[in-house]
Automatic annotation (TrEMBL):
One of its GO terms (molecular function) is ATP binding. It comes from Adineta steineri. Pfam families: AAA. Coiled coil: none annotated. This is ATPase AAA-type core domain-containing protein. Residues 1-20 are annotated as: Disordered. InterPro entries: ATPase_AAA_core, P-loop_NTPase. Residues 234-355 form the ATPase AAA-type core domain. It comes from the Eukaryota.
C-alpha cells in the first residue's frame, strides 16, 4: 500500500477529467447529485460542492453475501495508516436496543484531495464468525458491520483507490446464518417434528474444501433441491472425516422455501414402519435428510431379510408416492457404494452420487494455510477433519 495521498485542497480549475465543473455555481453543482433522503448522507453532493467535479465511484462489495466488512477495523486502518482524523467525519448515529450502545450507522470520511469514503447501513451484529481474529466492538461478540463501502474519488487516484479497496477486502467477518431443521422424534402418541437451529458453517470456497470437481455437483444438487414439486435422491458417501455432514450444513442454508426434515441415525430404521409413510404425507414438497443410512440402503439381494426401508425409499424417490408427495432425499453413508441397493442408483431417481475423500496434497496445504495452521506440517493428502483439527485445535467440523 502506498503512502497516504496528498491532502491539500484543490478546486480543479484546469482539470481535464470529464466530471469537472470548475465554473459552475455550487447551487447548480449540488443538483447533479442524488436527492437527499432521510437517514442518508448526501455524499455525492458533498463531493461536488467541495471538489467541483462529479466523482468516479468504486463500490466495494463481496460476491458472497455472507462476507461483511468490519467497519471498526477499516476505520482503524484509515486512522493509523492514512493518518486521517476520523473525529472530523460526518456521521449519523443510532442507539442499539440490546446493548444500550450508540453506534454510527452512516459515515462519510473525506481523506482530502478528492477521496471520500462512504459507510452506509452499518449495524451491530453478533451472528458472525471471526476467522480473521478482528477485535470485537462490544460485549457478547458484537461487531459493527456493513455489506458495502463506496469510495468516491477524482480519476487521478484510480490506482490508489484500487489498492485501498484490496486492503478493505481483508477486513471482514462472516455472517453466521442459521436455518430451522425439523428433527423426527417419537413418543407414545407417534411421530412428531421438533425444530432445531443449524448454523451455516464457514465455507467461503467450495472448491477449496472439496475440490474443483465438486462445484458442478453442488450446483446440480442445489438446482434440483430448489425445484418445486420435485423428487429424487442424493447419495453422499465416503470416508469418515471427509466433511459430508459439514457440507449438508452448508447446503441446507441455500435451499429456499422447503421444509427440511432430519432423520437421525437412531431413527432411520423407522422408515420401514407402516406408520412412518402416513406421517410423512403431512409434509409434501419436503426434503428428508438421513445420516448414517448404511443399514437401510443395503442391497436387498444380499440380505436374508430384505428391508422394507429400501422399498419405501424407492417409492418416495421415484414411485407412486414420489409422484404424490414430491419429497426429495439426502442420504449419507460410509460404506462402499457396491453394497447399497442398485435400484437407488437408477437414472431418473438419482439426483447426484458423490464420494467424498481426502483433499490432494496441494489443496490440503492451501486450506491449512487459509485456516491459519500454515503449510509446513502438511506432507500428505488429508481429510477436512484432519486439516481443521491440527495441533489439537477443536474446530467442531462434522464428518
Amino acid at each position: 500500500m502506498r503512502d497516504k495521498t496528498d491532502t491539500t485542497s484543490e478546486q480543479n480549475d484546469n482539470s481535464p477529467c470529464a466530471g469537472a465543473c470548475p465554473n459552475t455555481p455550487v447551487e447548480a453543482l449540488v443538483e447533479l447529485g442524488q436527492k437527499n433522503h432521510y437517514g442518508a448522507i448526501p455524499t455525492v453532493r458533498l463531493f461536488l460542492a467541495k471538489y467541483h467535479t462529479y466523482p468516479n465511484t468504486l463500490e466495494c462489495t463481496n460476491n458472497d453475501e455472507d462476507i461483511l466488512y468490519h467497519v471498526t477495523t477499516v476505520l482503524d486502518y484509515i486512522r493509523d495508516e492514512l493518518k486521517h482524523d476520523i473525529n472530523q467525519d460526518c456521521v449519523l448515529r443510532r442507539r442499539h436496543q440490546r446493548t444500550k450502545q450508540k453506534y454510527v450507522y452512516s459515515r462519510v470520511t473525506d481523506l482530502g484531495n478528492g477521496i471520500m469514503i462512504e459507510f452506509s447501513d452499518a449495524s451491530l451484529n453478533c451472528e458472525v464468525q471471526n476467522p480473521n481474529n478482528l477485535k470485537v466492538d462490544h460485549a457478547d461478540n458484537y461487531f459493527l458491520t456493513t455489506e458495502e463501502i463506496k469510495i468516491y474519488y477524482l480519476p487521478k487516484h484510480d490506482v490508489f483507490v484500487d489498492d485501498l479497496s484490496e486492503r478493505f477486502s481483508q477486513m471482514t467477518v462472516f455472517s453466521s446464518k442459521s436455518c430451522t431443521l425439523e428433527m423426527v422424534c417419537k413418543n407414545d402418541c407417534g411421530y412428531y417434528l421438533r425444530g432445531i437451529k443449524i448454523k451455516k458453517p464457514l465455507i467461503t470456497d467450495l472448491a477449496l474444501h472439496y475440490g474443483t470437481n465438486f462445484v458442478s455437483t453442488h450446483d446440480k444438487i442445489l438446482t434440483n433441491l430448489n425445484k418445486k414439486e420435485s423428487k429424487g435422491i442424493v447419495l453422499l458417501h465416503g470416508i469418515p472425516g471427509s466433511g459430508k455432514t459439514h457440507y449438508i450444513r452448508y447446503l441446507i442454508q441455500e435451499v429456499q422455501d422447503k421444509t427440511l426434515i432430519y432423520i437421525p441415525p437412531d431413527m432411520a430404521k423407522e422408515i420401514a414402519s407402516p406408520a412412518f409413510l402416513p406421517f410423512l404425507m403431512e409434509y409434501q414438497d419436503a426434503i428428508l435428510i438421513i445420516e448414517d443410512a448404511e443399514n437401510i440402503i443395503k442391497d436387498r439381494n444380499e440380505s436374508a431379510a430384505p428391508s422394507q426401508a429400501v422399498a419405501n425409499l424407492l417409492n418416495l424417490s421415484d414411485g407412486l408416492l414420489g409422484d404424490a408427495m414430491h419429497q426429495q432425499i439426502i442420504a449419507t453413508f460410509n460404506c462402499d457404494l457396491t453394497t447399497i441397493d442398485p435400484a437407488l442408483l437408477r437414472k431418473g431417481r438419482l439426483i447426484a452420487n458423490y464420494e467424498f475423500n481426502k483433499l490432494d496434497l496441494e489443496s490440503s496445504k492451501i486450506l491449512s494455510d487459509k485456516l491459519g495452521f500454515g503449510r509446513e506440517c502438511v506432507n500428505e493428502p488429508m481429510t477436512l477433519a484432519e486439516i481443521y483439527n491440527q495441533n489439537g485445535k477443536n474446530s467442531q467440523l462434522d464428518d
